[in-house]
Design a protein that fits this description.
Layout (H helix, E strand, L loop, with lengths): L2 H11 L9 H10 L4 H8 L3 H9 L5 H24 L8 E4 L4 E4 L4 E9 L6 E6 L2 E2 L52 E3 L2 E3 L7 H16 L4 H10 L1 H12 L28 E2 L4 E3 L7 E9 L2 H5 L4 E2 L4 E4 L7 E8 L22 E4 H10 L11 E11 L4 H17 L2 H16 L13 H24 L3 E6 L3 E5 L15 E10 L10
Parallel strand pairs: 8-14
Antiparallel strand pairs: 1-2, 3-4, 4-5, 6-7, 9-16, 10-17, 10-18, 11-15, 12-15, 13-14, 13-15, 16-17
Helix pairs in contact: 2-4, 2-5, 3-4, 6-7, 6-11, 7-12, 8-12, 10-13, 11-12
């Protein structure tokens, strides 16, 4: 073989690595098809965290790279075919200005998306958004809105600008702002918007579909169906969380590096974070007999999902300043507490003096009650912190979906769904740390913060009871508050997450009868 022949053979046998789309497009392509990381990972034979890594900057290699590239190319092709079916026409009332991507005419809050996003009504990819909500402009093309309830289909505006735009605008409507009604969603047709009477909620449908499938699989046996649903609560919760994050404006780090304060000191030991669990009983009672009602706080962990959670890897800082735009854990010297005779200590039942690591909810609670409005204690001294940029709405869609499913199950007397939903949010919180049962998210900091938020919520209920003239007798854990007095004038009774229910009623105090001489 000549030298040139050897070169030809070398070139013929060379293997060129399959190209992949830019990192910023990979997650968008998956989300536009309404596919979760878990589903894609199952098909590819990897873990969801591996898919998350590919979407964050790491590249697969070998055969896995070929498979992943095949999926991304297929996703592009499918989205392009869906867009092509929405044939653009020249409509004078909804012209598109190519350089701005804005639709003008009767509806000037219609804009064009550089890359298709899921319709908020039917979940299919669309290239337009109204008041910040991606949705179809053609009523007949929207699977989420009954065609017979909407006007006849109208032509759609011109095609979107080139997909080479640097980023994707993820708009959100403001409460009470233009284009937002009871459900915050409208459909555009013939230059005007019409809100469907009952647009389906794809997240809620996941819960109801899982329950229906379990009942069908077990022949309607409630006990067996409930047991099966509780057993799969963790993966189902993670799937629901993944779907609730579709279209979200924040990316999260699912497996961040953790500082030593968040690592267990031994195999069966705990880390250094103090969650502030109250285990408090009023040391003395006024003379006489008192009827005490033990109140059960409904859905304590479910409500606590609304808390400031760090998005990325925690970063270290020193000094006494607190940045409300960030969240994490903090080493503080807590203030003295002089109200133990009537209210529990906000940092919980702790006997050891000196600095301790507390969570964001505990610190915010202390900072709030030391201010001029309450003036209950001195400010805590902050020595150092591990924090990241944070948001309070990170789990909001996830929380609202579970809350609505819980409320509906209670109203319908549906114990299967109720137990399933309870297992989803309680196990979600308990397995966020280093758990063998949940490997999709390792956020020990989230676990501590959510638990602490539940304790802080209980403390505020105790303070409200005290402020309204009730006698607070005991506060335990996250969901138990014992009070004496007319508690129904303070707390609504019921099974909703904003309500309380009676757990027990008992009598305390001096019940020994007295004689007239003793009196």
């Amino acid at each position: 073989m000549t030298d040139f022949g050897a070169i030809d053979a070398l070139l013929a046998g060379a293997w060129r690595q399959v190209p992949l789309p830019p990192v910023g497009e990979r997650r968008i392509l998956r989300e536009e098809l309404n596919l979760s990381r878990a589903r894609l990972a199952q098909v590819l034979g990897v873990s969801p965290s591996t898919v998350g890594g590919w979407e964050s900057g790491r590249d697969p290699s070998g055969e896995m790279r070929v498979k992943y590239a095949y999926f991304l190319d297929g996703a592009k092709a499918q989205l392009a075919a869906d867009s092509a079916r929405q044939a653009p026409v020249d409509e004078p009332e909804a012209q598109v200005v190519a350089d701005t991507g804005r639709a003008v005419g009767q509806d000037d809050d219609v804009s064009v998306l550089a890359t298709p996003q899921p319709c908020v009504l039917c979940g299919q990819p669309v290239r337009y958004q109204v008041a910040g909500f991606p949705q179809h402009l053609d009523a007949a093309g929207c699977a989420g809105a009954p065609v017979d309830a909407l006007p006849a289909a109208e032509p759609t505006p011109a095609a979107a600008p080139a997909a080479a735009a640097a980023g994707v605008r993820r708009g959100r409507g403001r409460a009470g702002g233009p284009g937002q009604e009871a459900r915050g969603v409208k459909v555009v047709a013939a230059g005007r918007r019409v809100r469907p009477a009952d647009a389906p909620d794809p997240l809620a449908a996941r819960v109801s579909s899982a329950v229906a499938a379990a009942l069908a699989e077990h022949g309607g046996d409630v006990a067996q169906a409930t047991a099966a649903l509780v057993k799969r609560a963790i993966p189902d919760a993670m799937e629901l969380l993944d779907q609730s994050r579709v279209g979200g404006r924040y990316d999260i780090v699912a497996h961040p590096w953790l500082p030593d304060v968040l690592r267990k000191q031994s195999a069966r030991g705990a880390d250094q974070i103090w969650e502030g669990r109250p285990k408090w009983t009023r040391p003395e009672l006024p003379p006489g007999e008192h009827e005490v009602t033990a109140l059960d706080i409904n859905g304590a962990y479910l409500s606590a999902l609304k808390t400031h959670l760090p998005l990325g890897q925690l970063e270290h800082s020193e000094g006494g300043q607190h940045d409300r735009r960030r969240a994490g854990v903090h080493l503080i010297t807590p203030p003295d507490w002089d109200h133990d005779a009537c209210l529990p200590n906000p940092i919980g039942s702790r006997d050891e003096p000196g600095p301790l690591w507390v969570t964001e909810p505990t610190l915010r609670l202390l900072l709030r009650i030391c201010g001029p409005k309450y003036a209950l204690c001195d400010p805590p001294v902050i020595h150092e912190s591990w924090t990241s940029g944070a948001t309070e709405g990170l789990l909001e869609k996830f929380r609202i979906t579970l809350k609505d499913a819980r409320d509906k199950a209670i109203a319908d007397g549906d114990d299967v769904t109720l137990e399933y939903v309870k297992a989803m949010y309680s196990k979600f919180v308990s397995t966020l740390g280093e758990s063998n049962y949940n490997r999709e998210v390792y956020r020990t900091d989230w676990m501590h913060l959510i638990r602490s938020q539940a304790f802080a919520n209980l403390w505020w209920k105790a303070h409200r009871a005290y402020d309204e003239g009730l006698m607070v007798v005991r506060a335990m854990g996250t969901d138990e508050l014992h009070v004496a007095g007319d508690w129904r004038a303070v707390f609504p009774e019921g099974r909703g997450v904003s309500e309380v229910k009676v757990k027990d009623v008992y009598t305390v105090g001096d019940t020994t009868p007295t004689t007239p001489e003793e009196a």
